[in-house]
Amino acid sequence: MKVAVLDIKGKETGREVELSDAVFAIEPNNHAVYLDVKQYLAHQRQGTHKSKERAEIAGSTRKIKKQKGTGTARAGSIKSPVFRGGGRIFGPRPKDYKQKLNKNVKRLARRSALTLKSNENAITVVENFNFEAPKTKEFKDILKSLGLENKKSLIVLGEANNNVYLSSRNLQNSEVVTNAELSTYKILNANNVVLLEGSLEGIESNLIK
């Protein structure tokens, strides 16, 4: 599949690149996409939730009233969960939400996500660019030229570029990643995926194994 290469002004350079059908034109596997997105979201959870149980509450352990003859239920420590200020019964405890997923399934999910974006004509290939220093205004000008100023966009670099990354960091609707950081969730969450020329070889080598 051939795609025209644009410059940072949004105009065609007169060149085309060949996008691999093994990555951008497969039969999408929706279940693999579901599993990969589910794993990604699970890994975003810190799992540090915790409430104190009766053994962890500060307070006296003396018996607060005699066992019999009060006409009410038996009661022991003031830290009992039935009293205000007592410990919580079966409260949340720290938990690791990480899930395992086969590497081949993850690759299939990402190829499926890229195929879905390709089918929606939501993939743009742009020639490589760089900034001499972090400039959010220059980055916004590029998005505006590509018609992505008010859309969620995912820009994929061939390798880490600190100036480009810092230029985009303050923009809520735009995210910059390298081809190694590409994930199914990020692909699907974006309205448009912008691939720099230098990222294509890395994407194909990472996803075709």
From TrEMBL:
Any one Pfam family match given in the protein's UniProt record, by short name: Ribosomal_L4
Please indicate which superkingdom the organism of origin belongs to: Bacteria
Q: Name one GO cellular component term.
A: ribosome
Instruction: Please provide the Gene Ontology terms (biological process) for this protein.
Output: translation
Which residue stretches belong to region Disordered? 45-77
Q: Which InterPro entries does the entry mention?
A: Ribosomal_uL4, Ribosomal_uL4-like, Ribosomal_uL4_dom_sf
Q: Does the keyword RNA-binding apply?
A: yes
From the UniProt record, which GO molecular function terms apply?
rRNA binding; structural constituent of ribosome
Q: Which UniProt keywords apply?
A: Ribonucleoprotein, Ribosomal protein, RNA-binding, rRNA-binding
HAMAP family to which the protein is assigned, alphabetical: Ribosomal_uL4_B
According to the record's subunit comment, the protein's assembly and interactions are:
Part of the 50S ribosomal subunit.
Function according to Swiss-Prot or TrEMBL: One of the primary rRNA binding proteins, this protein initially binds near the 5'-end of the 23S rRNA. It is important during the early stages of 50S assembly. It makes multiple contacts with different domains of the 23S rRNA in the assembled 50S subunit and ribosome. Forms part of the polypeptide exit tunnel.
What family name appears in the similarity comment? Belongs to the universal ribosomal protein uL4 family.
* UniProt-recorded name of the protein: Large ribosomal subunit protein uL4
Species this protein is from: Arenibacter nanhaiticus
Show the taxonomic lineage.
Bacteria, Pseudomonadati, Bacteroidota, Flavobacteriia, Flavobacteriales
